[in-house]
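Onboarding guide, step 5: your first structure request.
Type a short instruction followed by the sequence, for example:

Predict the 3D structure of this protein.
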Amino acid sequence: MIRHPLIALGVGILLSSCAPTHPADVRAIDSLRARAETLVEAQSLMGYNNWAYGTPSNQDSLYHAYAGLFTRENIALTRRAEEEEADSVQKRRLQYFLRYLTLEFLSQEVAPLSDSIATAEARSVVTLAGEEIPYRQIAVLMANEPRQMRRAALYTAADSVLDALNPARRQLWGTYYRLARELGYPSYIAMISELKGIPLDEMRTTALFFLSSTDSLYRALLPGLIRRTAGLDTADFYRYDTPLLFRVHQFDPYYPKSELLPTAERMYRRLGFDLASMTNLTIDTAARAEKNPRAACFAIQVPGDIRVTLKPAGGFDDFAALFHELGHAQHYANTTEHALEFRTLGEYTVTETYAFLSEYLPLNQAWLRASSRMSVNTLKDFIRIQTFNRLYIVRRYCAKLLYELELHAGLSDPGNRYASLLASAAGYQRHPSDATRYLVDVDEHFYTATYLRGWFLEAQLNKWLSTTYGPNWYEHPGAGAFLQSLWAKGDRLTGDELSVITGCNAIRPDELIAEIRDMLRFSSR
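The system replies with C-alpha cells like these:
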C-alpha cells in the first residue's frame, strides 16, 4: 500500500517552448506546481507521523492552508493548456497534473464529510452480550475467533454502525457524481476512466474473463481449505469465516520476526541493492503501541526520503507485507526523473506492479526450493494455501469492480447486488448482513481497477524476467539492472507502456492464470 497523497519533489520546471502560447498560463501553472510540491510533502509527512507514531493528523488543515490550489478555475486552466500543448512530453505532464488537481479537488470538497465518517467510525461502539466493543476492533476479533457463532454475532453487531453511516456515504458519492457533471464529464465513471487512462468498460470484460477462467480452480481448492482452517463444509461457510483462511499459524516457525529484515536484505542484495546502505530509505519495524499495524510506504521526498513502516505480528504475512512496501520504496528511491509529474503523479498501476513483484519474491519456486527449511509436504501445503490466497483476493476484486461499475451507473438495489456478486466470487453462503457493507467496501476513484491491473501486469513482468534471466532471476545482476532502469523512470510510464516492454500488447490476466496453474502443479508434486 503506497501511502503518499500524491507526493512530489522537484521544483516546477518551466514548460518548453512548445508550451501553450499564453505566457501568463505557463507562469500560473508553474506556480501551482510549486505550491503542490510543498503541500503533498507536508501531507505525506503528517500521514507518516500519524501512522508510525500516532501523532494527531489533520489533513483538512493543510487544505485550508493551501486554499485556492484546487479550484475549478485551476482545473480549467490546466485543461486548456493540455489541449493546446503540442509537445508530447509536456502534454503528458499536463495530463498528470490535471488528474492530480481534479482528484484533489474532489477530496477537498468532501473532506468535511469524509472526516465526519472517519470520526464516527473511530468513536462507534457496539454492545454484544453485555460487552462494549469498538467498531474498528470487530474485524480483528473475528479473525482470531475460533467459534463460528461468535464470529457471526460479531459480524452482525456491526450492522447498526454501517446502517447509521450509509446515508453519509451515499451523500459522499452523490457529491462525487454531481461534481463530475459540473466539471464537464458525462458521468463519474467517464471522468475516472479519462483521468486515469483506464478503459473501465474493457476492465469489466477482463474481470468476467478472470472469474470464469478460474472458477473451477478456485472451487476445487475451496472445500479442502475451509475444512482444514475453519472445520467447515462449503454449505456452512460464510463471509465472516473468511479471515480464518488466511492466518495459518502452522507456518509461523519458518518465518520468525528475527529473519524479516535479514531475508529482505539478502534477497535485494542478490539483485544488486544493499538496503542497509541506502541512505534515502528508512525501514521502521519497531513495535510501538501507538503504531498502525498495517505496513505502508511513505514517499516523503522522491527520491531523497522514502520510509517504510511495519509492525511485525509474526508469520509469513509480515514478510509479504514488508516485501510489498519495499517494491514501492525501491521504485521511488531509484527514480531519476526531475519533473514533478513524472516523479509521483502517475497512475498507480505501475507502482502497484513493482510492489506485487517484490511481494511475491518470497514465493519464487527456485528460491523456496533452495532456501526453505520446510519439509516437502509442508512446502506443498504452504504453496497451495498461498495459491488459494491469491486466487481469492483477485477474484474478490474482480467482483468488486463489476459491482462498483454498476453502483456508479445508478444501480437500483446495490445492497443485494453487492452481496450476490461477492458471495459468488468467494464461494461463501449469503448472509443478510452482507448487504449492509455495500458502501463501506467501495474503493474511491476505482483503485480496485488499479489493483487488478497491477496483479495482471506483475505476472507479465515476472514472466518476462523468468524468460530472460531464468527462474531464479532474482539473483541475476542483469535483472536488477533492468528493474532499476524501470524504477528510474518514476511515474512517467503508464501501465500499458510497461506491458509493451514485457512483450505484451495489453494488460491481460492470461499470465496470472498460467502462474496460478503453475503454483498448483508445484504444490501437488
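Each response can be followed by summary notes, for example: The CA atoms of residues 331 and 487 lie 5 Å apart.
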